[in-house]
Design a protein that fits this description.
About 30% of the residues lie in helices and about 20% in strands. It is an alpha/beta fold. The protein folds into two domains: about 200 residues, DHBP synthase (Alpha-Beta Complex), CATH 3.90.870; about 80 residues, Rossmann fold. It has a nine-stranded mixed β-sheet, with helices on both faces. It has a four-stranded parallel β-sheet with strand order 12-15-13-14. A two-stranded parallel sheet has the order 1-8. The longest helix has 17 residues. About 50% of the residues are buried. The structure holds threonylcarbamoyladenylate and magnesium ion (MG). Magnesium ion binds next to loops.
Length: about 300
């Protein structure tokens, strides 16, 4: 079957209106930011976020960055302390991402944070993603708009070459300004260097370079959520003391997708693991999940949860 080429539309009111319709319908859109082109979906819609993973062919789930219009919108989702306020006041809108505690009932799909209780959030400066946030009236989860292992795209043509028809709509607003991904800061630690340099940050706060392993602020210890209970893979039946997470024809205490849909299963994964952890059962079992499409990322996460 010949895949349709992606639709590339020049930035403007018509392109943004078309993109907003797609976002509101749970679809994905490639849109430029001041750093790189992102592949965006409504961060409140778990299946839409799962479609980002399906399109990128990413073999694992990483928490994603959420893009919002302004500080007020960010504060509705994340809990800001004085440090975070100082950084936001100086560098937003712009290429700085803050990792902050996720607010209760923020309405963000658990697939966005990969089950963590922290969230990476930023207010972008680019007119195209700002227009899309406004038109869709949605916080947008967006990783870089390239296939897994590909280079980050700084032009619409790069997105088209990397994702093809897996990016149904690309908003073209020319080359991005920064060309590298946003700087990520958690507490006073730089998790990822980027356009906002350590020197620039240092004029606001004493920050130190580091990796997620060195994050010391409470609630920001884990890079990856995993359930606390032992987990058994490829289970077709429940053993004593187990909470069974089903898939397809394996019916459990819960299911990732009773119709065996992998995008639905990805969308359900982290909520299902949290429910299993919170249940009275001592152990968790999970039905087999096919290892194709976004199922590869689901199995990667399940294996890591099982082999801690
Ligand atoms: O410039 C950018 O940031 C681009 C544009 C599209 O905005 N986006 C981007 O997203 O680079 P992505 O998904 O490629 O990178 C997200 C990074 C990952 O390294 C991830 O581990 C980290 O952010 N991250 C997200 N949430 C996190 C969290 N709660 N704790 C620690 N790291 C987090
Ligand atoms: Mg990336």
């Amino acid at each position: 079957m010949e895949a349709q080429p992606p639709v590339i539309r020049a930035f403007g009111a018509a392109a943004i209106a078309e993109a907003a319709v797609l976002i509101r319908a749970g679809g994905i859109v490639a849109v430029p930011t001041e750093t790189v082109y992102g592949l965006a979906a409504d961060a409140r819609d778990a299946q839409a976020v799962a479609r980002i993973y399906a399109a990128k062919g990413r073999p694992s789930f990483n928490p994603l960055i959420v893009h919002v219009a302004d500080l007020a919108a960010a504060e509705a989702i994340a809990v800001f302390d004085a440090d975070a306020h100082a950084l936001a006041a100086r560098f937003w809108p712009g290429p700085l991402t803050l990792v902050l505690p996720l607010r209760d009932r923020a309405g963000i799909a658990s697939l966005v944070t990969a089950g963590l209780d922290t969230i990476a959030i930023r207010v972008p400066a680019h007119r195209a993603i700002q227009a899309l946030i406004a038109a869709a009236d949605a916080p947008l989860a967006a990783p870089s708009a390239n296939a897994s292992n590909g280079l980050s795209p700084t032009r619409a043509e790069h997105v088209a070459a990397s994702l093809g028809a897996r990016a149904p709509l690309i908003i073209d607003d020319g080359a991005t300004e920064a060309g590298v991904e946003s700087t990520i800061v958690a507490g006073r630690t730089i998790l990822r260097p980027g356009p906002i340099t350590a020197d620039m940050l240092g004029r606001v706060l004493p920050v130190a370079p580091g990796t997620t392993a060195h994050v010391s602020a409470p609630g920001q210890l884990a890079t990856h959520y995993a359930p606390a209970k032992p987990l058994r893979l490829n289970a077709r039946d429940r053993e004593a003391d187990e909470w069974l997470i089903g898939f397809g024809d394996v019916t459990g205490d819960d299911t990732l997708s009773s119709r065996g849909d992998l995008v639905e299963a990805a969308a359900a994964l982290f909520d299902a693991l949290h429910r299993a952890d919170a249940s009275a059962a001592a152990r968790i079992a999970v039905a087999p999940v096919p290892d194709d499409g976004v199922g590869v990322a689901i199995n990667d996460r399940l294996r890591r949860a099982a082999h801690r």
